[in-house]
Amino acid sequence: MGPSARTSMRPLATLRAMLRFVLVVMLGASFVTFVGAVLARFEGDQLFVRERGRIEAELRAEQSRLAMRMSALEDERRVDLKAIEDRLKNFGAGAPAADGLKGVQSAKTPFVIADRVGAIVELVCIDNVDKDVYYTGSGAVVTREGLIVTNKHLIMSDDGTPIKYCGVGFTSALQDPPVIDFIATSVAAHSGTDLAILRITDRIHDQPLPREFVFLDLLGSARAASGLGLGDPIFIAGYPGIGAETFTFTEGVVSGKVGPDLIKTSALIDTGTSGGAAFDDNGRYVGVPTAAARGDIGGSLGYLISAEVVEDFVKAYTDRK
Questions:
Q1: Buried-state track 136-167, b at ≥16 Cβ within 10 A, e below 16
Q2: Do residue 112 and residue 181 come from a single domain?
Q3: Mean pLDDT of the chain
Q4: How many structural domains comprise the chain?
Q5: What pLDDT digit, counting tens, does each position of 23-50 carry?
Q6: Among candidates 160, 161, 149, which has minimal Cα distance to 200?
Q7: How far apart are the C-alpha atoms of 112 and 234, rounded to whole Å?
Q8: Which of 9, 242, 262, 291 has the most neighbouring CB atoms within 10 Å?
Q9: Of 52, 85, 118, which marks where a domain is finished?
Q10: What distance in Å separates the CA atoms of residue 187 and residue 162, rounded to the nearest whole number?
Q11: Does 189 share its domain with 79?
């Protein structure tokens, strides 16, 4: 009985040995898997660290390039402004606009002109390519911060790009040409009409900018323009080339309309007047003089961009700021 018992225990020992072997193999596999996971995690962390370092290096390089570009743009702006200042100083002695227009009025005009003259400016826009070439026209200050509405064609350079800077002149005496004492930067152009916005940013003769400018209030201007009818009086202000470069005020009537944007008028619009301002008989701003059409027999019609368009354009620009 003893020998047979010893013989019967061999399969059990073998089974235990096999179980131990299986357990060792499983533990070994688990260990290998664990080590592999740790190594993979380590390699992933290393890869993440390297990638983050690369991205941070690229960001630093991009910031450096941006800083250099901004510095170059500022240098270009200073050079441009210096050239333009030198060019514009030839247009006047530098005396700022005065209050010498108070009381200016006309018995034929149902509103006080002087309250609006101070907001009508002459513009001298220097070509981007040739600083000796310039274009003159008119504009209207429409915010106390110095935003100017004018015609887009006035700020287009000979190469088709928007002109960067224009000299701005205010009238201090009706008999004298305006003094070009400020510089404005073009900031917006209307996509559908001949309108642009400039912003007064600098002064030529080393004086600070005023805390606020005389301006034409656009509040209610769209309603005034839409209410114009045939034969209603129209008054136009600006600096036409045929007007000896002094402030000029002309009168006409509403002659019709063209679509939703243009108002026809018999009031005189000539080179230099475009970009100025038009008023109704209550002195309300109703549009921008933009073009004149002459007939074969000498008659002419002027066109105004309605204040409905102007008001929306200015509001869209100021809302983005």
A1: bbbbbbbbeebbbbbbbebbbbeeeeebbbbb
A2: yes
A3: 77
A4: 2
A5: 655 655 565 566 566 556 666 667 766 7
A6: 149
A7: 15
A8: 262
A9: 85
A10: 9
A11: no
Q: Provide the residue type at 113 as one letter.
A: I
Give yes or no for residue 88 having a pLDDT over 80: no
* Rounded Cα gap, residues 229 and 303, in angstroms: 15
Query: Are the beta carbons of 234 and 279 closer than 8 angstroms?
Result: yes
- Widest CA span in the chain: 147
CA distance between the termini of the chain: 106
Same-domain check for residues 162 and 196: yes
Q: Residue 299 belongs to a domain with what CATH number?
A: 2.40.10.120
| Dihedrals phi, psi of 219, to nearest 5 degrees | -60, 120
Q: Distance (Å, rounded) from C-alpha 223 to C-alpha 286?
A: 9
- SS3 for 153-164, per residue? HHHECCCCCECC
- Gap between the Cα atoms of 144 and 179, Å rounded: 19
The H-assigned helical ranges of 89-200 are: 114-117
Tokens of 58: 């690229």
Q: Mean pLDDT throughout 298-304?
A: 73
User: Going by DSSP bridges, is the β-strand pair 120-126/165-170 parallel, antiparallel, or unpaired?
Assistant: antiparallel
Secondary-structure breakdown of the chain: helix, strand, coil percentages, each rounded to the nearest 5 = 35, 25, 35
If asked whether residues 119 and 66 sit together in one domain, one would say no
Q: Which residues pair with 277 in a beta bridge?
A: 237
- 69: its two tokens: 């570009």
Q: How many CA atoms lie within 13 A of 222 on its CB side?
A: 11
Boundaries of domain holding 55: 2-85
Contact at 8 Å (CB) between 306 and 262? yes
